[in-house]
C-alpha cells in the first residue's frame, strides 16, 4: 500500500523539541514525512534533527538554488496528503488566517489544498489575546482542524494553558480525524467521566484519582463520529468539548440522576467515570472539629449506576470499565455479567503509566459473547477510538 504523505510545518516555539517526537511517531506508523521549518524554528532545533528523523531533506528557503525543485512550495503542496503545523506559533496562525505568504512555511501552507491540522503552543497571554482567538476562528471557518493546547507547566515556569499536547496524542488526534470513522449519526450516547466527590462537611470530601481524560476522549471521538453526545462529568480540570452537551455533577447520586434522566432515549451509555461506591452517611452542615484520638466516619453504599442501568435497559448498549489492581481478567468477566453489559474495558490501575491520570491506557475489551480483544498501550484518544469503533459495530448489530 502507498505510504500516506504528511508535510510537517515547524515554527519557532520552545515546544519544538517535542515536535521531533511527533515526526518519529508518524515515521514509526508508516507515513512518508517531509518537514518545513521557519527561520525562527531553526534557532530552537537544528535542521539536521528533522532531516535525520524524517529521512528526507528539510525545506527552509524557497530561494535556495540547491533545492531540487524549482517551485518547491508547489511541488510540496501537490505531494501532501495531510499538512500538520506543530508547534503552531501565534505568528503562523495569524499568517495562515490572513493568507500571508512570506517564507517557506507560510507560502507552502497557502499553496496546500489538502486537510490542514494546527497544534498551537504558546504563552498563555498570547493564547488569550483576542487577536489569536480571532485568527483561530478564521482558520476553523476555513476548515482547518485545531488541537487546543493543554493546561500545564509552561517554559515560563508556571502552570497555564498553552502547553503542546504529547506527540502520541497528536498522532492519535490526526489519525482519528483523518481515518474513516463509523457513522454514529442519529445515535444518542451518554458518556460519564471523572471521579465523583462525596462531601463529608463543607471543607472535606471523599474522592479518587480520576481526571476525566479517558471519558473526555471517548466523548470527543463519539461526537466526531456524528453521535449526539452528553458528557456527565465529575469535577475535572478539562475544557468543555465543543458540540457535546456538558453536564457537571459532583456526587454519585447526582451522576445517577443525570444519566437516568437521559437513559430512556439514549442508544448507548459508556461509563468511564470512577464512581464512589460509598458516601458519608451524614454530611455535616458545619466543619467538623478535630477530636483527640481516632475519628470514625460511617459510610453508606451509593447506587451502582451501571448495575441499575443494566436492569433498566431495553434497547440500549452498555459499556463499562473495570478498574482493578488484582485479578484483572477474572474480575472483569464477573463485572460484565453482574452489570449486564455489552462491552467492558478492563484496565489495571495498579500500573503507574496507564489508568488514572496518565495520557495513556492499556485495556482488555470483554464482550458479552465471551470474545476478548486486548488493546495495547496507547494514548487515551486511540483507546477511545477503538472502544467507540467496537460500540458502533454493536449498535449496528454486528
Ligand atoms: O479519568 P482518568 O484519569 O482518565 O482515568 C480513567 C479511569 C481509570 C478512571 C477509567 O479508565 C476507568 O477505569 N473507569 C472506571 C472506574 C471505576 O469506577 O471502575 P469500577 O471497576 O469500580 O466500576 C466498574 C464500572 O461500574 C465502571 O464503569 C464504573 O463507572 C461503574 N460504577 C462503579 C461504581 C458505582 N457506584 N456505579 C457505577 O456505575
TrEMBL record:
Pathway connected to this protein: Cofactor biosynthesis; coenzyme A biosynthesis; CoA from (R)-pantothenate: step 3/5; Cofactor biosynthesis; coenzyme A biosynthesis; CoA from (R)-pantothenate: step 2/5
Stretches for region Phosphopantothenoylcysteine decarboxylase: 1-188
Reactions catalysed, as given in the entry: N-[(R)-4-phosphopantothenoyl]-L-cysteine + H(+) = (R)-4'-phosphopantetheine + CO2; (R)-4'-phosphopantothenate + L-cysteine + CTP = N-[(R)-4-phosphopantothenoyl]-L-cysteine + CMP + diphosphate + H(+)
Region (Phosphopantothenate--cysteine ligase): 189-398
Gene Ontology molecular-function annotations: ligase activity
UniProt key word Cytoplasm: no
Positions with a binding annotation for CTP: 277, 287, 303-306, 321, 335, 339
Domain of life: Bacteria
Coiled-coil segments: none
Domain Flavoprotein: start-end pairs: 4-174
UniProt domain DNA/pantothenate metabolism flavoprotein C-terminal: residue ranges: 184-392
EC number of this enzyme: 4.1.1.36, 6.3.2.5
Cofactor(s) essential for the protein: Mg(2+); FMN
Note accompanying the cofactor annotation: Binds 1 FMN per subunit.
UniProt entry keywords in alphabetical sequence: Decarboxylase, Flavoprotein, FMN, Ligase, Lyase, Magnesium, Metal-binding, Multifunctional enzyme
Stored PANTHER family: HOMO-OLIGOMERIC FLAVIN CONTAINING CYS DECARBOXYLASE FAMILY, PHOSPHOPANTOTHENOYLCYSTEINE DECARBOXYLASE
Family of the protein in this entry: In the C-terminal section; belongs to the PPC synthetase family.
Purpose: Catalyzes two steps in the biosynthesis of coenzyme A. In the first step cysteine is conjugated to 4'-phosphopantothenate to form 4-phosphopantothenoylcysteine, in the latter compound is decarboxylated to form 4'-phosphopantotheine.
Protein name: Coenzyme A biosynthesis bifunctional protein CoaBC
Source organism of this protein record: Ligilactobacillus ruminis
Amino acid at each position: 500500500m502507498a505510504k500516506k504523505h504528511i508535510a510537517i510545518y515547524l515554527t519557532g516555539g520552545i515546544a519544538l523539541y517535542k515536535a521531533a517526537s511527533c515526526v518519529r511517531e508518524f515515521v514509526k506508523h508508516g507515513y512518508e514525512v517531509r518537514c518545513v521549518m521557519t527561520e525562527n524554528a531553526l534557532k530552537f532545533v537544528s535542521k539536521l534533527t528533522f532531516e535525520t528523523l524524517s529521512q528526507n531533506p528539510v525545506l527552509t528557503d524557497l530561494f535556495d538554488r540547491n533545492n531540487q525543485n524549482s517551485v518547491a512550495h508547489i511541488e510540496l503542496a501537490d505531494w501532501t496528503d495531510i499538512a500538520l503545523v506543530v508547534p503552531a506559533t501565534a505568528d503562523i496562525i495569524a499568517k495562515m488566517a490572513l493568507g500571508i505568504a512570506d517564507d517557506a512555511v507560510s507560502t507552502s501552507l497557502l499553496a496546500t489544498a489538502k486537510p490542514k491540522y494546527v497544534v498551537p503552543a504558546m504563552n498563555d497571554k498570547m493564547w488569550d489575546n483576542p487577536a489569536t482567538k480571532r485568527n483561530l476562528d478564521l482558520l476553523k471557518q476555513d476548515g482547518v482542524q485545531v488541537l487546543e493546547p493543554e493546561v500545564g507547566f509552561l517554559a515560563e515556569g508556571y502552570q497555564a494553558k498553552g502547553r503542546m499536547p504529547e506527540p502520541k496524542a497528536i498522532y492519535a488526534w490526526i489519525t482519528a480525524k483523518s481515518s474513516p470513522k463509523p457513522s454514529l449519526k442519529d445515535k444518542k450516547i451518554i458518556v460519564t467521566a471523572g471521579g465523583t466527590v462525596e462531601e463529608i462537611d463543607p471543607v472535606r470530601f471523599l474522592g479518587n484519582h480520576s481526571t476525566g481524560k479517558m471519558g473526555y476522549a471517548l466523548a470527543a471521538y463519539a461526537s466526531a463520529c456524528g453521535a449526539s453526545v452528553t458528557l456527565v462529568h465529575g469535577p475535572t480540570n478539562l475544557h468543555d468539548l465543543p458540540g457535546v452537551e456538558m453536564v457537571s455533577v459532583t456526587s454519585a447520586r447526582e451522576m445517577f440522576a443525570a444519566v437516568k434522566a437521559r437513559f430512556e432515549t439514549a442508544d448507548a451509555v459508556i461509563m468511564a467515570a470512577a464512581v464512589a461506591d460509598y458516601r458519608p452517611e451524614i454530611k455535616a452542615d458545619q466543619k467538623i472539629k478535630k477530636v483527640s484520638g481516632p475519628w470514625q466516619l460511617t459510610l453508606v453504599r451509593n447506587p451502582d449506576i451501571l448495575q441499575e442501568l443494566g436492569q433498566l435497559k431495553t434497547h440500549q448498549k452498555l459499556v463499562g470499565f473495570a478498574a482493578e489492581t488484582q485479578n484483572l481478567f477474572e474480575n472483569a468477566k464477573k463485572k460484565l455479567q453482574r452489570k449486564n453489559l455489552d462491552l467492558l474495558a478492563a484496565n489495571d490501575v495498579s500500573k503507574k503509566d496507564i489508568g488514572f491520570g496518565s495520557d495513556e491506557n492499556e485495556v482488555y475489551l470483554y464482550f458479552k459473547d465471551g470474545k476478548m480483544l486486548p488493546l495495547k498501550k496507547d494514548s487515551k484518544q486511540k483507546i477511545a477510538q477503538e472502544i467507540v469503533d467496537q460500540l458502533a459495530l454493536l449498535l449496528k448489530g454486528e
